[in-house]
Amino acid sequence: MNFNEELKQRVEQINALLAAKLPAEEGMQQRVAEAMNYSVNAGGKRLRPMLLLEVYRLLGGNDEKITEPFMAALECIQWTMTIPAAAN
Hints:
By secondary structure, this protein is mainly alpha-helical. Helix content is 70%, strand content 0%. The chain is built from 4 helices and no strands. The longest helix is centred in the last third of the chain and has 20 residues. It is globular and about 40 Å long. The termini are far apart.
């Protein structure tokens, strides 16, 4: 597998992880959930979660499920930091 194929596969895996972790767009928080989901699902290279996973592997980790909440949180935090910059 070449680099571009590997990158595409990992981005798809991270996008699936994010989709599973993001809140449902319903109830009283519907508008907030819609905005959050829209921002996070806008796309991107997903480098931060990939780096987190690779460092985990480099340090001897072998249960990738452990990293999933941290990968999702890292990507969500990154997007919340870019929203104010985009608004200016």
